[in-house]
């Protein structure tokens, strides 16, 4: 009998959590959280309007969704820069000299 998750391929853990040592299946993506929150906010605005709890103008979704997408893009950029900087500081490759600049390994 196969494991229920065996059809998804090998499980890739993305390292232990810094505080608790817990391993997660997927990495944390803060930009996706913000984009989802913006879409959920727009949906809740129109759901309240449909339930006659309040009146939401037709154009209200544009600033909510586009503002959320802008914040998600900025968050993704900041998160990328943080991950890249921590990866570079953890790597020793950027401190060592290149393997060879002559011979068969030279770029032509």
Q: Are there runs of 5+ residues with pLDDT below 50, and where?
A: none
**Topology as a string of helices (H) and strands (E):** HH
In round numbers, the mean pLDDT is 80
User: What is the strand tally?
Assistant: 0
| Assembly level | single chain
The percent range for strand residues is under 5%
| Largest sheet composition | none
Q: Count the helices. How many?
A: 2
> What is the general shape?
elongated
* Distance between the amino and carboxyl termini: 53 Å
Using only C-alpha atoms, the radius of gyration works out to 23 Å
Structural class: mainly alpha
Query: What is the helical fraction, as a range of percent?
Result: 40-55%
Summarize the structure.
The protein is mainly alpha-helical. It has a domain at 27-89. It contains two helices and no strands.
